[in-house]
Design goal:
2 copies of one chain form a homodimer. Chain A has 11 helices and 10 strands. The first copy, chain A, is α/β, with parallel strands linked by helices. Chain A is globular, with a radius of gyration of 18 Å. The first copy, chain A, starts with 21 loop residues before the first strand and ends with a helix. Chains A, B: GO terms for molecular function: isomerase activity.
Chain lengths: 308, 308
Amino acid sequence: MTASGDRLAGATHGSGTDLSRCSLNTATVKHATLAQAVDAAATAGLGAVGLWRHQVQEHGAQKAARIVSDAGLRVSSLCRGGFLTAHDEAGVAAALDDNRRAIEEAAGVGTRELVFVVGGLPAMSEPGRGPRPDAGPGDRDLVAARARVADRIGDLAPFAAEHGVRIVLEALHPIFAADRAVISTLGQALDLAAPFDAGVVGVVVDTYHVWWDPALEASIARAGREGRLAGYQVCDWILPLAAEPLNSRGHVGDGYIDFPTVSRWVAEAGYDGDVETEIFHEEVWATDPRDTARTVGERYARHVLPHL
Amino acid sequence: MTASGDRLAGATHGSGTDLSRCSLNTATVKHATLAQAVDAAATAGLGAVGLWRHQVQEHGAQKAARIVSDAGLRVSSLCRGGFLTAHDEAGVAAALDDNRRAIEEAAGVGTRELVFVVGGLPAMSEPGRGPRPDAGPGDRDLVAARARVADRIGDLAPFAAEHGVRIVLEALHPIFAADRAVISTLGQALDLAAPFDAGVVGVVVDTYHVWWDPALEASIARAGREGRLAGYQVCDWILPLAAEPLNSRGHVGDGYIDFPTVSRWVAEAGYDGDVETEIFHEEVWATDPRDTARTVGERYARHVLPHL
């Protein structure tokens, strides 16, 4: 219910700042249980949490939804479907099966926003590692891999529509184009979404992944105009990169991203949904979840909220 | 003379494969002297070398040019001008001064292609490191930094034209947008070049930096149509990234990039200039320069030449 759900009145922290649109993606407190993550978000005065599928699978969708709602929070999104680039018949069938389950889990846990990370090249051995020794030229064919993503979205869209779930395409930073996601820009995500109803295939703006894009302002405006802006995720681009670049994200304000400008573009595009903070970083993960959630609220209040 | 220079007849290696368009960028053999790098390229049967300014400064332009021509090679390009994003008066003046010297050096050493890496955000402390502690929101303003790059190109273009040198804009991978280059796509480089004569401001396609771009085919075709395709540099995207991501490039064929497809796009755009291999990697730098140059030629012959 990111873009259209009810707002919790009075979800404010001590200073009276309205944190009702501030959501804690539970990956930011990776080592917390669902109950601990929800407690941390509620204690910090946040309005929502973003969940991951393993939490829904662990508790069952109904119980996971109740853990969240009992704390007075909403589910802003579910991460994640995707991994659609296989070019063999068994791989395609497995991807479709898994994504149908993800769609059911999103519906069951009470969010209509299911974030998709679409997967890397078939040449990949495993994420973050080099190509398979037997990878041929076709396994490096990025154009073909992107075309298969389009085909798989077409396969899944009717099932998502039936379940009231939106496939939310996430562009990942080009650093991950080989091994995690062949969608590399917001504009490309919008092109892939274009053939489908805006209520069935949307896009998410994640600052970490798209902040550098010369076309970002135009693509955010287009996403708003087309009714596809299904989420806004924030975290910062910090340097030096961590040894595992996937886990190299910083709290909002600690890095290079111009949050006032990007947040203004998102607001001007008409987005009135939740703002999820999603940070992958070992030091953040080693911090007490309540401290992390409080920092998330403070940074949102300082760098994002005034520009929404 | 990348795009228009004479071809050396008979620059072939033992097997008869024509390596006359294969150029060794001397950064690939970082620890070699200019004489050693030239010897390695000539011994491997390559047709050209790409130079760096420190080599020209060390020997003087005339002597550096003679070291190259005495070995029967051409200079395919000079790296590099740029670093144009300063927003203080002294920083702007220093950048203009330095780039005028670079333009003179390019003319002196006999290439008209001067590669520009345009610099990162003013918030940067030093490349690869976090923002300055005193960096304010304006120092993270990417839109403004890009506008300053456009202004500085305008300042330098007449001087380049007078010297018969082309400012060759290089889009760097978005991993470097914060700290090294706010030009992140080939399309953006072409937009920045658009106000100027194609003989004065051009672009280079470096596979490492642009391979992931969904608009790559269209942007390469546009560069050809506009007469701005001033260079083609190749090296591979390998994983895992090195601790210093700048030095994380692989020999052609060792990573994820689809060289047949990108090389075909470059050829179809009408490019008939040199193909520089430019690799920053500690292991490559630790290899004997003659071995590295031979590998460069072999990989070019296998993965690039058949598609040109």
